Amino acid sequence: MPQASPWIALEAGADAEASARALADVHERYFADAPVDAGALRSVISASWRRCARAGVTPRDHDVQVLDDGELRERRAASGLEPAVTALRELLGSSGGLLIVTDAEGHLLWVEGDRQARAQGAVVALVPGALWREDAAGTNAMGTSLAVTHPVQVFAAEHVRSAVHGWTCSAAPLRRPDGGEVLGCVDLTGPARTVHPHSLGLVTTAARAVELLLPNQFEHVAATVALRALGTDRAVLQAGVRRLELSPRHSEIAVLLALHPDGLSAEELALELFGEDGKPVSVRAELSRLRRMLGPVLDAQPYRLTVPLRTDFAAVGEHVDAGRAAAALEAYPGALLPSSAAPGIVEHRRGLDAAVRLAVIASADDALLRRWVESPAGRHDLPGLELLLRRRPRDPSLVPLGRRAARLRAGH
Fold first, then answer.
1. Which of 8, 101, 195, 301 is the 20 to 30 Å CA partner of 14?
2. What is the Cα–Cα distance from 299 to 86, expressed in whole angstroms?
3. How far apart are CA 117 and CA 86, in angstroms?
4. How far lies 280's CA from each of 183, 208, 249, 286, 306, in Å?
């Protein structure tokens, strides 16, 4: 009997065990290049299997890429989906199995369920940060719904990877309320025996219900965006209530674009990031990933930030230029992206560090100089330490600083 919908795996009341056995036989024959009866697979599944084959995904694949904790935090913040997660918990949290929310690339951002369900899911890499896009994890409801931008259910051996044949999943895309752009998807996943068309209807309805909670473009949140990059290697962009922590590489790009408000070409950015050996193609790939997070906030040709930007490092520079040494030091928690080796960052970091130091020394304020040499940026400033010790040779509170100066002279 033909399915009521090509997007549903089984009709209500169908024999799930018999269907799973039949699909396992089709799967085995298909991936052994043996003949398969026309109509043995739904068209959405056969099309997905062809895409997976072109991508090189096989039934024996086990490894799934997983983001580290920092990258996961960045993608969660960049997705704009967090406002919808609470509502999805309320709508779907009692459905059993796993509730999963992905970003537009198929990374699992949130994976929720009871302890047993999460432990079972972890065996097949249904964990936060895992990449379940079709070309990485084979046919699955999340990856396939993102590929075809439509709700879909995937059951048992409809999955390409054999490790996932014990599962069924139903997913629906989550779209931005303004232009319909797909931001990710919501998914219900459980043991194959729990397959039911109701699951697909449930996630589809939930997805439509929460889309009005999703934000429009990043720059619509606030007229001005703040960038903080002092004393950390992971810069933070803040626009209103939205906060986005960037990876170290994206932090370097954001700072360089802030330093060049008129924009930089890919070739110029490659030079600023990597020096003479920089390749524009590598820069373009990073910029493409960053633009998916920021939307039109990041423009191209040349690459530039399109919204007014306040930066903590510019604020320090303004205090220095105005002769406000104390305010400059107060606003200077540490060096600009301290671990970055990008030539453009290193040059500005050294210049800003020297400017703050000179402003403090020129102030002839011993208390301010002490604050400088005790700060993260100035603790290795041996000339500054020696100047303070010469100014206050009999101050017993400076004895620990005298010992530090001795260690620095000895190269420790």
1. 101
2. 32
3. 19
4. 28, 40, 14, 10, 21
pLDDT along the chain (412 residues), means of 10: 73 91 95 89 95 94 88 84 85 85 95 94 96 96 96 97 96 79 92 92 90 59 78 87 81 95 93 89 85 77 88 96 94 94 95 94 91 87 90 89 89 74
In angstroms, the CA 404 to CA 215 distance is 51
- The answer to whether 232 and 337 are in contact (CB under 8 A) is yes
**What does the alpha-carbon distance between residue 67 and residue 118 come to, in Å, rounded to a whole number?**
18
* pLDDT the model gives residue 2: 42
CB 352 within 8 A of CB 336: yes
The closest alpha carbon to 368, from 320, 315, 325, 317, belongs to 325
Enter the tokens of residue 99. 């509730």
Nearest to 244 by CA among 268, 270, 215: 215
Q: What is the rounded CA–CA span in Å between residue 384 and residue 327? A: 19
Which of 65, 18, 27, 64 has its CA nearest to residue 45? 27
Task: Output the pLDDT for position 228.
Answer: 95
Gap between the Cα atoms of 168 and 13, Å rounded: 16
Token pair 């198929």 is found at 106
- Which amino acid, residue 181? E
Torsion of CA 144, 150, 156, 159, to 10 degrees: -10
